[in-house]
Amino acid sequence: MRLASGGRVDRAKPLSFVFDGKRYTGFQGDTVASALLANGVHLVGRSFKYHRPRGIMAAGAGEPNALFGIGRDEAHYTPNLTASQVMLYDGLVAESQNRSPSLERDTGSLIDRLWRFFPAGFYYKTFMWPRKAWTKLFEPRIREMAGLGRAPKAPDAARYGQIYAHCETLVIGAGPAGIAAALRAAAAGGRVILCDEQAEFGGSLLAENVAKIDGLPASDWLALSVAELQRLNVKMLPRSVAFGYFPHNMVGIAQDLTDYLGEPDTGIRGRLWQVRAGEVVVATGALERPMVFPDNDRPGIMLADSARVFVERYGVKPGTRAVVFTAHDEAYRAALALHEAGVEIAVIADLREAPAGGWVDKARAAGLLVRPGTVVTETSGHLRVTGVTLSTGEVVSCDLVLMSGGFTPSVHLFSQSRGKLKFDEALQIFVPGEPAEATRAVGAAAGAQTLAAALGEGYTVADLPDSGGGFLGAVPHGRDPATVRAFVDFQNDVTAKDLKLAMLEGFRSIEHVKRYTTTGMATDQGKTSNMNALGIVSEALGVPIPAIGTTTFRMPYTPIPFGLFAGYARGELFDPVRETPIHSWAKERGAVFEDVGQWKRARYFPNGDEDMNAAVTRECKAVRAGCGIFDASTLGKIEIVGPDAAEFLNRMYVNTWTKLKPGKLRYGVLLREDGFVLDDGVVGRMAEDRFHVTTTTGGAPRVLAMMEDYLQTEWPELKVWLTSTTEQWAVIAVQGPKAREILQHLVEGADISNAAFPHMSVAECKVAGVPARLFRVSFTGELGFEVNVPADHGRAVWEAIFASGGTTPYGTETMHVLRAEKGYIIVGQETDGTATPDDVGLSWAIGKTKPDYVGKRALARASMAAQDDRKQLVGVLTEDPGIVLEEGAHLVADPNQPVPMKMLGHITSSYWSGTLDRSIALAMVRKGRSRIGESFTVPLPDRNVKVTLTEPVFFDPEGVRINA
Amino acid sequence: MPDSVNLSNPPRSGDLRARAAAPMARFSLRGPESFAAEGVTALRLGPDEFLLLLPEGETPALAVPEPYSLVDISHRQIGIVLEGPAAADMLNAGCPLDLDERAFPVGMATRTLFMKADIVLWRVAEQKFHIEVWRSFAPYVWSLLEVIGLEYT
Amino acid sequence: MLLIDCPYCGKRPEIEFSYGGEAHIARAPKDATDKEWTAFLYQRGNARGEHAERWRHVRGCGKFFNAVRNTVTDHFLTTYKAGEKRP
Questions:
Q1: Where are the domains of chain A?
Q2: C-alpha distances in angstroms, A241 versus A553, A702, A931?
Q3: pTM of the predicted model as reported, rounded to 2 decimal places
Q4: Does ipTM top 0.95?
């Protein structure tokens, strides 16, 4: 019910919202929770396992029951939002969760009647028989019932941003302690960032009607302080949750920007901050704990301080007649606040035998009935609490119960920073101890018990009585434990009984108890349940709490939308899309592209309505009959320069380089130190001290990194330097018997006749008027050239060559087929990181007299030599020439042997060859070379395919055409 | 310039301008710790590595003791200039460095990251940065800057 | 995200670096027995606590350097140039 006045809500700004299909009104400044309570709505959820009716328990963070799915449509829908943390906006649409068909009538509540069969971990012991029923019936049903909330049915329409920020001081939490710390830090100089999860700074001061700070009412002090923070250029981030503490003082903050506005998507909805701070001040406050007593979870049973906040901050009366059950003085303050707002306080039951202090005195003076040494043993009511039974035997009717077990400092972030916690015996709380980073905690988070202590030196606080107390564990109720459920973790429906069961069954470590019972594992991460659980375990085991310890705190502190972590990396901007200088020409030509790492490469150029097979067959034939033109710009290139360049290459590659003359090329093979093939590529010697090295498209960064490693850390005395030139050069391959004829008239400054420019030569000259490095090299087995021109000129030179006529553009698929016909390997296709040069027929490339090269020592290991059945490169021809094998298919000797079969090898490359008008394949087969000529079988799911092994070359084995 | 980056697009807003730098010759110089040359801007990327920027078509006349490696990479990368009061904040959307003037003063240049692209970042003036990026990553960096710029209009 | 003190560039964020494995492992193929070479290839100390390791400032100056980092707390005790002895 709404009070006529009071609170920080703006009664002049009414807002309309919908909950479970019904329309309600609230005010600017309400949360969804306060607005619902103002409308008399208490039933907000059904519990996770038992489907018990639940109400709003807390006014802020830590609320376990009021979890809503909020969003105007599926593209803006977020599940599991806590109603007490969502600011109300006009047009908000919310739905409750975990109930069917409605909150009032939920079929799931049948489980509550059968609760004895569903203790913690029931799925480990029940629903075992019949076995088949587990997979078909039990497991799917249990999975269906599990989970909180539902996923949205449409992609997230919101956009999110991100930013890295640096500051000298980051203050997390803008309550009194945080504000004071931020003012101090700002006055001392340096950049200060202050963040708070709420929309308004102030924390506990937003509901502080009694205390005076420096003679001012708390709300006035707050307003002045915020103005001062602004004047001092403190970067203030409201609606920003510090959700994670990362190494070396980096803190992740999720800033919410437009969620509350409910407008169409204009700007970004939120921003992920990654803040590196010189010092982090943790001012995250403390959260009130519930009392653990039988049936403590009915709607209308809420935390005492939260009830006071509903009254004093939101102007809402949460009930008409209240029972207070407490072990802490703050509940007396709450009772007084409600009493002043017109709520009848039936009785204050205090677990403590002799409660005393300022608030207790004030409550007694106001005529409120106090029963020390008294507990609640039972509650009644179904969709709303209707009464309680006290240990005195009294039955008291009420529609509201205020409970307070004390306050737990929020040490989550401090713990995430790997700081150690220490247990304060007197206060029975864990507080931050020795930090691991430049971190300190202040205020209630550090265990401060008064507002004065929270503010620290330099401030005076008046009119505020001290308050203390607290209890950890289950309240003794004197009833038959078998009949009673006292809730510890409201979100996962974990009772005191469940925790005791865990220990009965032998779980001792708190990490095991947590996982077995699932206490603390829901979206609230145990904010209101962890300490009570610890108290129960401590008592049951007879082990003091500090000896048991806490479970590990992990990020995020509260749930964060995935979109926030994705940031800008979505859709077109998920990854860089890398295009060559010739890409646009290929696109205009209708090429079909494929992804090669981050690159787009033309896969084939269909004419008309050709499918891939038809296009590739045509392209292959065109290259071998006349001339093809191919974009090889993505190949990695490294310029290696210096007097020791050749010596360096000698030590890196298997080949010998010292005798390679300028103007000549060599096919280089690069191994890892373990002797296995890592990369290959053609290397050109441009001058005595300058090499143009090529690598595979995907291997370029890896090869360069490996070279730098050896150069910097093994051979720093060598005078040679490496520069990546992959993107400096566009590379146009011109391949086919007519290649020279077509290229000749475009070349200036070099004689490219066969006599002057044999296969594996390089010349600096001009092509189509552009300075070029012209390579005579071939990956097709035909007479071929690769024209390297500076990238800006790539497209123009391509067009000039194409305009000469007689060339057919071809793509990567054709390139693969043509090289396979010649038995040229592709690193990463024929090799898989476990192939030696000999395995793939490249022993010839090794410089036999070189004293050392990377991988040489590993190849000489006895264990390598002892392997006489290594997989070796062979060709494979199917008996039926029309069958194209699948890459990855295995070869066996006898297809009728029992399973598992002995696998002799696998198909690495497989294509239809237009040149030979039949299928071809390459494979790696054990003892392959000695098995050439023999037949084997490739067993497939639907048939067995007979094959014969051949030499790994299918076309022009003498290499006549390449030397034309 | 790759066709996909349209340089003639007008900038996002009054204060903020992102434009591609004028055509430049770029050379990578690896060798001794320091050198002298006229008409050349040298960005030191590492103890023995410099990125030289000079007017297109020219070759640097270096007074450098041998040996050294000089490689023309004019076509390898593209320059983008980002200027305006929000320039540093926009860069911080993708670059994890402290870009406060005390930490990254005018004249400082370094190789670093911008989201998934490697860049060279050079502070030319208080509110002006010059970004060098490999040509195939330029459209990605440009598009990102456009999206990020929406938050600063 | 670790903050790593590059001997050439100063403190930089972890994502500018690539990790290079355990430091001070000598590469001596001529003197190594098969067993020693296998250990060189495949075996590492995996220390719990202070660990001398290599890092490369690949998205920065490009230099390799060494560091002593506590593998439990992630605190860096020191960084030093490649080729220098562990302090």
A1: 10-113, 160-286+409-462, 472-542, 583-634+728-819, 636-724, 867-950
A2: 16, 39, 67
A3: 0.93
A4: yes
